[in-house]
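ok so for the tutorial part 2 we go from a plain amino acid sequence to predicted structure tokens. step 1 is just haveing the sequence, like this:
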Amino acid sequence: MFLGGGVKDLLNSDVFRGSSYFLLVFSCSFFFLVINDGVFWDSWTLYNQSFEIILKKFTDAGFPLTAYYNYFVIDSLGVVGARIIMCAAYLLSGLFLNEILKQLNCENGADRIVIVTLFLLLPVNFSRVSVINHFAIICYLFFYAGFYFFLLQQNSKGLKKFFIRVGALLLLFFSFSLNSLLVFYVVVALAFLYRCKVGGYSFAKTFIEGVKSIDFWALPLVYYIIKSTYFFPSGIYKNYNTIDVDMLFVVIENMHSNLYLAAVDLYVIQREYLNEIGLMCTILSVLLLSIPMFFVFSLATRYKT
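step 2 — the prediction. this is what the tokens look like for a chain of 305 residues:
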């Protein structure tokens, strides 16, 4: 009984609905990682470095303003202080996700608790507390906060709606400093469409509501134009995060050659360790994979020339 309705009742209780539950489970999972003052991964590029070196690094990467923030945090608060801020940002992101799910009519408290818990806890590894990821986690928090305020302003009116809307735009804009969020921003659009569907909006009304939110849909494009015009990567980061057609051909060529090498490796393994039937299956599988790759490679080469 406890594993059935009992668990569901527990998850729907006031204790599990509140932020205290998320704080408890998150702290239990990451406490020992936070208090460890070791420097992991690429965090050495920030630790015990002069401001000039950090500024050069982030300016070349196209994010000069983040150099000031990173240097201030590391120099003033140290590694453990930076990790506390990171974990607070993770936790607040989870709380904002909880509110986002409420805005999207996820009324089942048990389901919402499970989703947010998995969001907060997985994965448990050192990359989540690596200082080099510090500003990226702040962008992460900005995104979920902006996402929540985007949904909130749709049901607000007057001056309150204006301030919430401006806040959402600013938060989402600065969150794009983590460039992968430019792609993930499609989730905001899907949430908007989902809310319109749940609200029973017709196609015409959904279109009108979408036009009213045109500033939000133009936001990624505005950021991309400003970023590519004034804050483009240079030095060792030149052409970083750029779309290059020639590079696409290189990728296709590498895929073709790697497929051939993988086929050779599989052939050797099968010949040494498996029977003839396994060998025949491997040869057939490689042929089936090679045929479409051959045509893709041929078309790409023909287009390139």
